[in-house]
Amino acid sequence: MLNFSSDYTNGAHPEVLRRLVETNDEVLTTYGSDVYTESAKVKIRAACGAPEADIYFLAGGTQTNLTVISGMLGLCGAAVAAETGHIALHEAGAIEYTGHKVLTVPHRDGKITAEALEACLRGFYADDNHTHMPYPGLVYISHPTEYGTLYAKAELEALRAVCDAYDIPLFLDGARLGYGLASRQTDVSLSDIAALCDVFYIGGTKVGALCGEAVVFPRGNAPRHFFTIVKQHGALLAKGRLCGVQFDALFTDDLYLRISRHAIDCAERLKAILRGKGYRFFMETATNQQFVVLENAQMARLCEQVAFGYWEPFDEAHTVVRFATSWSTREEELAALAEIL
Amino acid sequence: MLNFSSDYTNGAHPEVLRRLVETNDEVLTTYGSDVYTESAKVKIRAACGAPEADIYFLAGGTQTNLTVISGMLGLCGAAVAAETGHIALHEAGAIEYTGHKVLTVPHRDGKITAEALEACLRGFYADDNHTHMPYPGLVYISHPTEYGTLYAKAELEALRAVCDAYDIPLFLDGARLGYGLASRQTDVSLSDIAALCDVFYIGGTKVGALCGEAVVFPRGNAPRHFFTIVKQHGALLAKGRLCGVQFDALFTDDLYLRISRHAIDCAERLKAILRGKGYRFFMETATNQQFVVLENAQMARLCEQVAFGYWEPFDEAHTVVRFATSWSTREEELAALAEIL
Amino acid sequence: MLNFSSDYTNGAHPEVLRRLVETNDEVLTTYGSDVYTESAKVKIRAACGAPEADIYFLAGGTQTNLTVISGMLGLCGAAVAAETGHIALHEAGAIEYTGHKVLTVPHRDGKITAEALEACLRGFYADDNHTHMPYPGLVYISHPTEYGTLYAKAELEALRAVCDAYDIPLFLDGARLGYGLASRQTDVSLSDIAALCDVFYIGGTKVGALCGEAVVFPRGNAPRHFFTIVKQHGALLAKGRLCGVQFDALFTDDLYLRISRHAIDCAERLKAILRGKGYRFFMETATNQQFVVLENAQMARLCEQVAFGYWEPFDEAHTVVRFATSWSTREEELAALAEIL
Amino acid sequence: MLNFSSDYTNGAHPEVLRRLVETNDEVLTTYGSDVYTESAKVKIRAACGAPEADIYFLAGGTQTNLTVISGMLGLCGAAVAAETGHIALHEAGAIEYTGHKVLTVPHRDGKITAEALEACLRGFYADDNHTHMPYPGLVYISHPTEYGTLYAKAELEALRAVCDAYDIPLFLDGARLGYGLASRQTDVSLSDIAALCDVFYIGGTKVGALCGEAVVFPRGNAPRHFFTIVKQHGALLAKGRLCGVQFDALFTDDLYLRISRHAIDCAERLKAILRGKGYRFFMETATNQQFVVLENAQMARLCEQVAFGYWEPFDEAHTVVRFATSWSTREEELAALAEIL
Prior knowledge:
The structure is a homotetramer. Chain A is an alpha/beta fold. Chain A is 41% helix and 19% strand. The first copy, chain A, contains 14 helices and 13 strands. Chain A has a seven-stranded mixed sheet, sandwiched between helices. Chain A has a four-stranded antiparallel sheet with strand order 9-10-13-12. The longest helix of chain A is centred in the last third of the chain and has 22 residues, at 255-276.
């Protein structure tokens, strides 16, 4: 069956896998102290234009979100997120489990606008009862968002300005960052993100790795004891090489961007097909995820030939579904999809 | 200055105070094992028609909410509350601090309708991703609500039916329970609450005590180790007598209801005054809290002569304020207020 | 029956109770913003010689320990305590519930020596694996200790020096502080404690109040958002007056010290009686708690006429028990005890 | 340089790696729903003789310990561990971070004896104050222990009997389980462990995998919502195949046991070398870790040619070090080591 259900249904990119195989027999030190992890850090710092960056490699997205947010927030601090944010919806209450509330603000296409953020923060401090409430202590955004949309550089700058005005750190969840950076419609580079965020991560799991997210504190601003915090949250891999080697490969010869661009090329082709067939977009994005409204009977028929992601009900008779491309999507799969649709 | 700002600006009801004074020199055992605590439990069980009830006395409302919810919920469980619920807004993230999400549902006059609850629960289990989400593990309602409104018995029964259908416990925050029970427009008795809820508390702090809330598990259904859980949450008073004596007094000769009725009589008088003077109600309730919309300049003027509660902005030019009566409101205060308004 | 079981079996000191009664009808603001709370703070700052002190009133000891420790510690920080420390043994895991380990060090008569502390800290940082361990983030001592013993000023200074060398805050649990300050064998004043500790509390529950502990951050060094943290931990009393009035009374005309001195006088008398009758001391202290080794059959006989505290088994045939005096101990009780022993 | 520092300095066993490579291009479902994860579960159930077992794959040891313990324990429950237990010492306070105390008991060669456990539990319930203490809610043992020692079957049965008597679940940390099962001096099989424990895990990270631990609830007794709990603790891998494929390989044709046996053969050879050269054993074990006491100057010299694990100071002049073999140890390494020693 054709598969456009998500961007993590394949193993590793061949080049990433090749490096795992090549280094497999080497004796390496543990817990992220090995040479490949170090090399990956050097390359990521360079790619980010952030020579002072503290970098940590964790295994997955929810783990990274909870460890970073728990590490950054003070005791009564809350994470401000879009109501559609992954931490607000689909992480099993992991943030709350670390003791922190997720304060949601209305989204626009999955994004937080500077206006919405400012309104939230202003409203909070204007409230006579705000000392009886968890204070907004960190802003969480995702880029691409859960809807595949992207912040423009000006939007990020506006958020940054609000964060500065209220002295709140900005955290960018880049679980699919590659697909944002490689988009044809973005003006945001990795250096921009490093310059504008207090912490962010470069997603590996969904962009060519078997697992792994690279957390970047661009100005050497990791919380004190962050290594121990990672361990405390169960997020320290004994064989740190597993992430180190993979990210070293991903950041060699621009592999991360190159394979992301492939996914974007496929997504553009996919959009053309969907448009050509008259499908109705719920969210037509500049990244690797496209959201389409299907009539329910049609959805049931398609299901038999192609796997896609069920997203949410649209109305009684229709459903929003997601088609995702990835670094592993093949031309013939798109051609076959074109036949089916 | 006149004071209608809240129902906890005075000390204890004279009768409650008298009993504290009378018993002061007695040597009593500690941590709630004393004879007055035991006597209070016996009287509360009788008042609730719940001879098997487990009863615990805690010091305050937020403490009670966090201890009960933490004690009742499983690891990934979330508390379902109205978006206006106290635990969702004004408890400093205390529930999240215990590791649990507060899932909010839309409110109607501060209440959760059975329909809204059912929609929330049905929607949850219909969501393909629900195993990636904290599950609804307890329903939190307040009676009176944060807006002074009351559930009708039929409404509670409908909520109970939904809770039964989904096997979720129902927790009623009765911080102001007396003012609900004594309302002229309620058909809900203490026995009804004991019959319909899995756990609830009878508020003392706002109804005549210096501090104290009586948590009732009506069918002897306290979570295992609940005494230790109370201690673990810092909620166990060494001199348990402090709550025991007060609740023993409040449940002797119907004092709790009698003093609540006084507050209701005052509230009815207050409503008549407000209505007579043409004030615009934001929420005209059957309990001791009345919410009025004031023009901002008018609010500033009134502020100089009478204390009331600032609630929330209504629009640019108006504000919602709260006038609260209590067991301690005096006739002459109402008369003076009538002069001022 | 005679009662020497503990120092919290009576209500409030008459003077404290009198002030609760006198102020009962006053309308006061809430959550600790009232005039009596403010007045109590002024008096405590003066008594401590700490004009900049931040002061908060909480209801009980375990609550205070968990709120202060949780508020002071960073994410991976552990509280260092004597293995006999209250937080290590008898607080239902409340510290762990806030996410922090209690690291125990060997005790000497219930105390931590500077040597033991230094050895613990030096050992920690000397351990190659220390980044895989929770770091010592706060030192917890009690004064008087759980065994009624006291730190000499030189001992506190030595602890302070170690804390300074390792940049760790020092927290003193003063649940029974009055009985330490009033001891005939102490050279430690309240000002000394304020000068040497980063945070401490002045116990009320066991020294004349119905409830209440005054937390003092002597150099205005309360953690950011501490008011909200108190609320988040369920420790904020709506009627802050309850603690405010009591501490205002306790710190008027030296009441706190005077009533503590009474307990000490009684304890000295008690010791003389025990010594005179040939009882064997397990711990003969300079404060209000005396620990005696009883033969088990003797213990069973005494039990029938006098209440004392069972402490721990001594050997197969003997048990350590505690006799405690307090502000409320009466001459005739001591005389009666002398008859019985 | 020769390397005997630990058993996780190499990548994956070639056969495990081969299967990762072979399956890499397959499109597989996510979050552990894939066919290889399912196949691994079937094989592990068979190997355990536990057809009803619930099985979950997590990435690492600390993560597994904290997720399982948090999932199994009630609110005030503590994990009972040897004072040398990994969770008590080297997991950065991860268990406490989940809100639970680690109660330590004295160890014998890294093990908990049934007597020590029984004494701990009996002592707890005999203590009048036990409701003020976290209750023992789970027993944690490791097999092999942190010192490489093994429980005899009779010892496990005796622990089980105590657990049954007190109705406490028994959790076995099998981070190095293979090296225990393959020992020449064990009478404990995987089926025995499945029969005697309530939950245990089969370690992959240290026995041939890049990462991964297989948690087994042998009687289908996983806590409710355990999948969500895993997610909540950040321990759910999006590409569940990463663990699934590896464990499927490890449990095909007895690979897990075969490679473990190789490590044991190497360890026996290592012991012979050490013995032959007159080294003094601190702990001579039947598994893959051997602990030797080195004079400090000798240690410094050896350090230059061979990597080993620094364990703990023995006395002023000596240090305990660890030599570990693994599935990846080669004959020529042992020969070279024999030359050096």
